[in-house]
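Reposting from the mailing list since nobody answered there.

I have sequence plus structure tokens for a pair of proteins and want to know whether others read the tokens the same way I do. The first protein:
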Amino acid sequence: MDRSKRAFELDFLRGFSISMMILHHFAFDIRYLVGKDVFSIIESDLFDQVLQPIFLIIFVLISGICCQFSRDNFKRAIKLLIVAMAFSLVMAVFSFVSKESLFVFFNILHLLTVGTFLFALYDLWERKTAHNRLDPCGNEIRHSVRGEIMILILAGVIIYSDQLFRGIGSDIGSYALLPLGFLPDNYLGMGDYLPLIPWLGFFFIGVMVGRFGYADKQSLFLRTPSWIRRLFVPLEWVGRNSLLVYLIHQPIILGVLYLLGYIKF
């Protein structure tokens, strides 16, 4: 793709949300692992109910949109699955060694794996049935309007289900249902957690935004002045390399805190 036509706005927004997540994890480590009475904002309703959801929604939406740009979402899902399983294993080992309950059973990596795989299945079905959908001129209709309406309805149901099931999770919760958001009683402490309900709904909305808003697979702001684009470069880089940044940021933070003598393993 012509680099000048790259959807830099998506890289920027994803880089911004990842950067906010890094700040959150840094504040979490200082407050809870180091034990400093700072960054109390991460315990506030403002952060828990407004700021963090906004950053997460941005990231999940952008991830859904980016399915439109992938040449093979099945390969992308397999890559994410391998990384997610490896990440869970590393965090389990770290939890046992450090005696800190920072297990990761299901988080953003697992969520994106499921969402990407489900979209890949839908896209495969759509391509295989395209010959049955012809316009008045006899040309194949690439998208199934009925299917896309159903995806949007499903997204709404998933998001609404978070409110519907809130408060009864512990009654029906188990580790088998943990990916859906139903936590069992006395579950092991987790360092990160992001269930399918409601977040898969936002991923599906992002998928639809990508299919309609980025059908040409290029930026919606092609005439953006170059000096503005240069301002976005750092966050664009973070957004383009979000998986790498996500995987290495916490080890770097913990490593620095260890070298400074604030924490011990």
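The second protein, same order (residues first, tokens after):
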Amino acid sequence: MHGRTGIMISNRPMLLPWRGKDIPHFALDILRGCNIQCPGCYNLRSPFVKSIDQVSNELDSALRLRRLHTLTLTGGEVTLHPELPEIIRRVREKGLHVAIITNGLELNEKFLDSLKDSPPDLILLHIQKEQKRSDMSVQTEDSARELRERKAELIASYGIVAGLSIIINRASLSEVPELMREITESPHLEYMLATCYTDFNKFRNVSGSSESGLLCSPAEKTGSGSTEEEITNAEISEALGRNGYLPYAYLCSNRSRNDTNWLSYVQGIIRQGNKINMSISVKSGISDRLLVRLARLITGRYIFFYRAGPLRFRIQLLLNAVSGGSFRKNIRLLMESFRKGNELHDKHFIFQQAPSIEEDGTVTYCRDCPDSTILNGRLVPSCLCDRMKDLIQK
């Protein structure tokens, strides 16, 4: 059976054990303002830039609230912050991995040179055909794909992991498997973060926090925008299942353990030059659950972002094969990885379910929201921080 955003129980991936202070990720909001406009953007407030001291204070607050492993810098367009290199340096000094999400408009050699002394671990490019951009002459998927690959190649040349950040709506659902194939076939792209579109105009006067729960005034909950383009992770997982993709792990909603509000996929591939010889979808097994908890036991925190590398991924595949994963596929992939000229790679795909509002005004969102940020001392989902009227007015 299905939950609101669920998948078939018989094909249930592992539920990640993050709870409360053990949630290993945080979104540090450093500015507002952007140099392009995107459909589905949740930013609402007028442009502003947080000072270094303010960012540092919020970073310290985040570390008191969570045992962090990875922190993502968000905005607004983060490359517009004049002290971004210093912010990344301060985050890395805390022993954290750093990711940034950018539209890539300002991403060039000069920008990446400025980050050489303290580079981020991961740069997610938000480049889609729907955007009106000065670096994309025509709004076509071919133009967007060419721009993404060119920017990703530049990022990878600096030793930084490159990925995509995209927004998915009902009209683009059929394009999701093709986007995943694009990343699978790309020699430079390794991650994809996909967010389900929602009409954020319907969220008015939200109150509460990520920890205590969120409430939206029932009188205002319908908003003024259309919801016909909204889509759920249930629809995405069904579409991907028809294309042979198996879900690896998930986070549930604050409403039900059967909701897959945050869903991840892991793809193992064999590359020889520019050719993909083999590709499998990794299904989680008992060993994966044990490894997640073992990392917490050894390091004191859960792992959020990692770059496996061939040796570590081979070990993961072998353990997975004998503990509930796809035995034959895993062993075949492992054998192929040792053939001369073959390279083993892992690709990662994450799908985020947008928050929704129930009839009584209760907001449904990720129970263990990894993308919470701090607003006036309170943890709130970053996608709703501009709707927290009681906090914004303080």
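Reply #1 (J.P.):
I read it the same way you do. The radius of gyration is 20 Å.
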